[in-house]
Amino acid sequence: MPGLLLDTLRGANTPARPIWLMRQAGRYLPEYRALRTEKGGFLELVYDSEAATEITLQPVRRFGFDGAILFSDILIVPYAMGQNLEFLVGEGPRLSPRLVDHALDGLEAVPERLAPIYATVAGVKAALGPETTLLGFAGSPWTVATYMVAGEGSRDQHVTRLMAYRDPAVFQAIIDAIVAVTVDYLAGQIRAGAEVVQLFDSWAGSLAPAEFERWVIAPNARIVAALKVQFPDCPVIGFPKGVGEKLPAYARETGVDAVGIDETIDPLWAAGALPEGMPVQGNLDPLLLEAGSPGLEEQARRLLDIFAGRPHVFNLGHGIGQHTPIAHVERLLATVRGWQG
């Protein structure tokens, strides 16, 4: 029997609401911090399948979340495409050579860099009970491209947006290459045991409407369509952060089965604007969870009530913060599990 999360993402409006949290496997957990101290840096953990399996299972073991999300990173795709990847302490990820000044066809693909991720998926799947759904993921092409072009993250994606305007044919080739690798990568995760996959588009909100159609909606639609040919029963969640009023178009035109909404989206508006019956995921502010103020339970119940008329996966509007107290997560879980729809 499928778990509550998988049922919900397939369109069941169940009385109980499934819950998992983006970045639930990570630095807010003392057991994660202990393992990272023992094993070394972030990328070393991702490529140690035994350690990555343990990290993926840690929050499920502690909290009993309805979903386990693969411990990995969206930049594994450009790493497999041939860019060098490193995580600098206090500065974040760096990719080289940057595609703003290096041709895409100058990269030499290293597809074997994906194999350890599949091993992690298989290890997690073997350890989970049927009540817990395993989620795989990848970055969406636009967001991945911003890192590949600029070599790092930025506030407004200036370098990548400029390239897309100045040389759209070159940029289209980058997007096309990312789409192809992403389809293969997600298919590999599903074959290894992932029951749901999520497309993270962290920088989708930086684009003008026409550019959003070209660089977010169109490539994501191609990925979803390709996956559905192979795995028609595997739900795909799309999470285009920061897109505001463009969210309904994304939900309609990409073909995703469910849409994640960030904390800036008015849930009342989303409940009315999104396609009827489409599962929604989100959108508690991660900072409210970290603060743990008396408003935490009130806002959680409000979200549950607003989305009572459609399938709803309780989640945050983005990743859980590293300074979030365990007790606050426990309070949130008690509220969601005690809710009577």
Describe the protein's architecture and organization.
This protein has 341 residues and is α/β, with parallel strands linked by helices. It has a single domain, classed as TIM Barrel, CATH 3.20.20.210. The chain has 15 helices and 9 strands. It has helices at residues 4-9, 30-39, 42-46, 49-63, 76-81, 115-127, 141-150, 158-166, 168-192, 209-230, 247-253, 267-273, 286-291, 295-306, 326-338; strands spanning 67-69, 84-88, 92-96, 133-139, 196-201, 236-240, 258-260, 280-284, 312-316. Strand 7 (258-260), helix 12 (267-273) and strand 8 form a beta-alpha-beta unit.
Tags for this model:
single chain, 341 residues, alpha/beta, TIM Barrel, seven-stranded parallel beta sheet, two-stranded antiparallel ribbon
Q: How many helices does DSSP assign?
A: 15
Helix content: 40-55%
The figure for the number of domains is 1
Low-confidence stretches: none
Molecular shape: globular
The biggest beta sheet is recorded as:
7 strands, parallel
At the first level of CATH, the class is: Alpha Beta
Distance between the termini: 23 Å
Strand content: 5-15%
In short:
By secondary structure, the protein is of the alpha/beta class. The chain contains 15 helices and 9 strands.
SSE layout:
Elements: H1 4-9, H2 30-39, H3 42-46, H4 49-63, E1 67-69, H5 76-81, E2 84-88, E3 92-96, H6 115-127, E4 133-139, H7 141-150, H8 158-166, H9 168-192, E5 196-201, H10 209-230, E6 236-240, H11 247-253, E7 258-260, H12 267-273, E8 280-284, H13 286-291, H14 295-306, E9 312-316, H15 326-338
Parallel strand pairs: 1-4, 4-5, 5-6, 6-7, 7-8, 8-9
Antiparallel strand pairs: 2-3
Helix pairs in contact: 4-6, 6-9, 7-8, 7-9, 8-9, 9-10, 14-15
